[in-house]
Amino acid sequence: MHSEELIKPDGRTLTLYSTQPIPAGLAAPSPFAEPQHANPHLRWHPLRGEWVTYAAYRQNRTYQPPPQYNPLAPTRDPAHPTELPAGDYEVAVFDNRFPSLALDAHDPPALDVPTAPANGKCEVVVFTQDAQASLGSLPAARIALLLQVWADRTARLRGHGHIQYVLPFENRGAEVGVTLHHPHGQIYAYPFVPPVPARQLAQEREYFLQHGASLLCDMARAEAADGKRVLYRDEHAIAFVPPCARYPYEAWVMPLAPCQDFGALGPAQRAALARALKTVLLKYDGLWDRPFPYLMMWYQAPTDGADHPETQLHAQFCPPYRMRDRLKFLAGTELGAGMFAMDVLPETTAYELQQVEIALEEAA
Amino acid sequence: MHSEELIKPDGRTLTLYSTQPIPAGLAAPSPFAEPQHANPHLRWHPLRGEWVTYAAYRQNRTYQPPPQYNPLAPTRDPAHPTELPAGDYEVAVFDNRFPSLALDAHDPPALDVPTAPANGKCEVVVFTQDAQASLGSLPAARIALLLQVWADRTARLRGHGHIQYVLPFENRGAEVGVTLHHPHGQIYAYPFVPPVPARQLAQEREYFLQHGASLLCDMARAEAADGKRVLYRDEHAIAFVPPCARYPYEAWVMPLAPCQDFGALGPAQRAALARALKTVLLKYDGLWDRPFPYLMMWYQAPTDGADHPETQLHAQFCPPYRMRDRLKFLAGTELGAGMFAMDVLPETTAYELQQVEIALEEAA
Q1: Full-model pTM
Q2: Is A182 a catalytic residue?
Q3: How far does CA B52 lie from the centroid of its chain?
Q4: For chain A, is the Cβ count within 10 Å smaller at the N or the C terminus?
């Protein structure tokens, strides 16, 4: 993998990635001329025991672009620079202009609850230069490259000593609030292990202490043996609807062998994981013959310097639909109590997804 | 408070409540003739350490009612019975026909994850016979009656020995998935303390052990002293935007004195709490001169037989809008990481709500 780090006129960083050498002389454009002034702060929520981040300048983060202007497309008209240059590269990562977390945040307000500077980082990851593509429509080799990019970002973000957790995710579709449909995801680097991964890690740790094995690897083995909910399986990777799905079309994707983070993936595992991921994505889009919205989260070990044999790198997909034309709303019991109520069995949605025929390219 | 418990033709229970005696001879109708067959089950989510409930028969819970048919209105046409009789009563509570939890659930499936019958209860609480009203438009005396009804339901549900937690809530508005706009809420009675209240209780317990006082009472005292985020305050009750709000127009409502649950409220506290609640609701609807959607959750002590001096009865409102025409979507960082990202400061939304003038009826 080749990469090239550039600085935008407003001070933000842009990194270009490719399986091929990146041509010299590319410059990093920005839709914004003035330097960035992001100063988010954290407030402690004493009743939930968690941090909340405040970035008031985000409220008016839209601006008036020309019609058809796509800030994630390569710049074609220098009078209207986008976030990316034209040129030969495959994946691009740049600092979010309106971040919820910022490395140089400072001077949080004094309040009756504890506060802190929101010293993290928010990055945008552009999967392709093609605005009409989607993650699932990209070649498996591109998806494998993306897994390498996530590893590289995790390594770089770990370099800022205080970053405790790196979460790559993709919000896809207007149904989950996305307004920019160019294929892209995000990376949040947190100065603490956030509540959801913290809870998962605690569960994994307890299981590891009791069984001397990874909870998720054992779950994956049981799923592979049972088969009822499996969407993809090869020697190195698996995708399945978990038996405890909280969303009707939830799916998990993971390597079969123990693997703490993106950095620990070998080439064969990456290729298999890319095919597993692409399989889920193609089945999603094939289910109702239209782009299928979802949240995709990639969980890995914290970047706290410790070894985490208890945890397993994996993706969780949380799609918002419960039927073709009905969204699943999170309401009183889900958000207020934390107990998810499902109207459909995981075995049923797994069967539906199993029936979707896809044309997966041949393995290289 | 007067109440009358009736049984519907399909076996479900209906209880009518009123400040006045309820006339004899009212019969409980049902839109459904056949007996209810609800058999939800729980599956353990080993990675999150929480139960998920499955009620597959809920997926097709809509049926084809006649136009304008409102199942929560009093029955006017015996050929099309609703859930409620016509007659003199104020508030009605009945068993949800499509429950996520059921007292007689049995024989859960055997799976690779632990399973259990979903032995809880789901109730519907109709606030008024007037389909055009809203909780906030009802007289404060009706809201005070509702607080008594919630106390009565909690006491009755506690009677089923295994119920550990009773959560009254209201989902309001199409924006949070509500299709039935007759003013109503729900009550979920859980056979365990669900994750969100469990987390809150743990935080309250730790604070109580350290400070010998209630976390929420101390927060309320600090808010009252500061004043910047207060929406209502009298001798007995307070409403404010919490300094750690996770939703732009979040508000909390609570009694000022320590009070574990609805059953512990005295008449003066109930009256004050009703006025505090009505104030928030009227300010919400007044903010943009239109019905304001929200989730309203009422947290109280578990029904586990133990004393809970650490916990404080209170309501949390989670509204889905971040601006007049923009919803706040919960996406990668909120649902995937559990860190909420706010685009607006609690002080700003509190100020906006403080400026909304309302006509609160005089205290009796």
Answers
A1: 0.96
A2: no
A3: 20
A4: C
